[in-house]
Amino acid sequence: MTARPTRRPAPGRSRSAVAAATAVAAALLLSACGDQTDAAIAKREAAKNRNPDAPLFKLLPQDIQDKAMIQVGSDITYKPVEFRTNGKVTGIDPDLAEAMGKELGVKLNFNNATFDTLMGGMKSKRYDIAMSAMTDTKDRQEGVDSTTGKKVSDGVDFIDYLDVGVSIYTQKGKTQGIDGWEALCGKKIAVQRGTVSHDLAKDQSKKCEESGTDAISIEAFDNDTEAQTRLRTGGVDAVSSDYPVAAYAVKTSGGGNDFQLVGGAPVKAAPYGIAVPKDRTKLRDALKAAMEAIVKKGSYAQVLKKWNVTDAAVKEVKLNGGS
What we know:
Layout: H1 15-33, H2 38-49, H3 62-67, E1 69-74, E2 83-85, E3 88-90, H4 92-104, E4 107-112, H5 118-123, E5 129-130, H6 138-142, E6 156-171, E7 188-192, H7 196-210, E8 217-221, H8 224-232, E9 238-242, H9 243-252, E10 259-277, H10 281-297, H11 299-306
Parallel strand pairs: 1-4, 1-5, 7-8, 7-9
Antiparallel strand pairs: 2-3, 6-9, 6-10
Helix pairs in contact: 4-10, 4-11
């Protein structure tokens, strides 16, 4: 192999001059491409999302003002509350969050996760808040596991923004006599893990056994879409979901030919709440003010009308109104 000759600086140019020229060229190249470090990208993103002139911007804690972003944990598989269409997150919660963001002057950014990991995600600071059709309950407020009764966290505060109930649906034309929760004894039901529907199914199953009938066979899934698939294929007799989700599934799945609602009016109406860690009181109060603002200005009603859930509107935005 022939050795390559050593490149020497051109006559009249020192090595230091060559180095300086190289540094300038690199700087120009970096400037042309833009600084691609994480910090620089975050700074540009913040500048794009921040509106310090927004009515409620100054209510936000400093860290949120600086990054101009509230990270939202959400199970984005729960039509019509939150879901993806053509790659975009849409639904009741994202639309309300967008309206709130305009009042706050920052972006509420939705991050997908399974429902039963949202509390842990806030605890580990992966998310600032959770907005995911989450029912406000005393157990969640106090950080108590509803199954074991043991305290597992410091709990959260809730900003209540919708009042909804729980419904049951079956395959269309195959109700098997299911006309309410009591009729589920000895039947199979699919639910989303960690939800109020899951709790109701477990409670009813105990009642079935106490009355001398067969328990309910409960299949719990990571998301409601999986529960619906299980029903569609005949693996279970029924599914229980929050009313807006059940009604949307019945209306849209198979062009309205897959499912039917059973059991009459939704049961156990309770508020959906935006969950905020107990130690983020300033963020909680800013979000409550934003929700109150969109209710007053009418954008709240517009979102609910768009998704056909006007009956779920709250008359007052409360803190920790669940029981």
